[in-house]
Specification:
The chain is mostly helical and 107 residues long. The protein is built from five helices and no strands.
Length: 107
């Protein structure tokens, strides 16, 4: 019988990219961004954008949105990242993205 290799991670630990977003480390987020799938649901059921929005890291949320992260992914609770936003500044950047006012960068 042929075995099929899964591309799903069986790890129970969040990725270094997710941890950088969780800790507010923009420099590390930038250095890891091109090496990861930034829209990946982590083992805890959230994306990096969810955690950055939850902790109110405006610069990271803005960077992720500018670089094409999807604001439309539901976490394990059925909530999008903008619904996890911790403050009005974060909610505003999501609104700007919805209104097409966020310039996309694909560098």
């Amino acid at each position: 019988m042929k075995q099929i290799k899964s591309n799903l991670s069986m790890s129970t630990e969040p990725s270094p990219f997710y941890i950088a977003c969780e800790k507010g480390d923009l420099n590390k987020v930038k250095s890891l961004f091109i090496k990861v799938n930034p829209d990946k649901l982590e083992p805890n059921g959230s994306t990096a954008l969810h955690v950055a929005a939850y902790y109110g890291y405006y610069d990271i949320v803005k960077y992720l949105l500018e670089h094409g992260c999807s604001p439309n992914i539901n976490n394990q609770y059925g909530r999008t990242a903008d619904q996890e936003a911790s403050n009005d500044q974060i909610r505003e950047i999501f609104q700007q993205a919805k209104d097409g006012k966020i310039q996309k960068h694909f560098d």
